[in-house]
Amino acid sequence: MAHIVSEAFKTQDIQVELEYYPWKRGYLLTKNATIDGTFVWSKKDERFADFLYSDTVITDVPVVFYRKDAPIPWEAENWESLKDIKVGATIGYSYLSNFRKYET
Fold it and tell me: What is the dihedral of CA 42, 46, 47, 50, to 10 degrees?
């Protein structure tokens, strides 16, 4: 994504300087105008008050990663099948609502 975004700005003769932050921090730094922008985010109604969105850059497909030697009972698009499994997630990241309802 960094390459795609940099190349897009380059077509407009704008050089970007990329800095990498955890999701939540990047979001807050942009919201507070400490940095100029952040990517890649999903459109959410509550964000429209603070942010402008570009055209779609990428279409996301949710997937679950797990170890080959320790398969989990994942059934595609059946989030209920993960209810008894400990799943790692990123603080401040925006997950699908059908995944978030299993947060503890």
Answer: 180
